[in-house]
Design goal:
The chain is mainly β. It contains one helix and 14 strands, in the order ββββββββαββββββ. The chain is globular, with a radius of gyration of 19 Å.
Amino acid sequence: LMLPVSFGFHQLDRGTDILDKDNYATFAFIPGYEVDFFLSSRWTLKPQFHLGVGYEKDTSSLAKIWYAGIKTKYRLSDSNTNEHNFIGSISTGGSNPEFEKRSRYSAVLIGIESSFRMTQWVAQKRPLNLHFHANYSELFDQLDFHLSPEQSSKIHNQWEVGIGVGRIDKVLSWWLLSFDRIGLAFQSDTSQKFEAIKIFFSSTYDR
């Protein structure tokens, strides 16, 4: 059972006022359910479905938000120190009412994830895994990024590469939070109109 909550802000050039109540823009709560089906010792499927509601401040409007998809993971090879997985997914989502036909989302993703044991850290009794992933997403519905009231970029695809670290057979924890790994990923579309850097805390299959 998943209970995701998100907040949106705007006017990011306001510095320390970014969390000011006047800068509040959107809120969404989209609970959902996902389950793993182990088809074999190597192949896993994960269907998921989310249904919730979102609120937008400027128009004081509510919208129903939904998302559905299925992910797959196939272990290509593994050993006592390394593991390599093929990752794939197909997903779709949207909202009702729609906002200027920009509320639709459908995509197919393919990629690979690898984990390498850092043996030099094992000798120091601090066993760590080095995690690497690379994936590509083709969007069936373009995404519009509004750079200004007069300028926007239309995105039709996205690729991502990332690297991170995690403990072997043990989760990382900080305060009330626990996560499988921590790392940085770079995202871009093939035309390089869109670029982003993000922090990730789990496998692409679990995100």
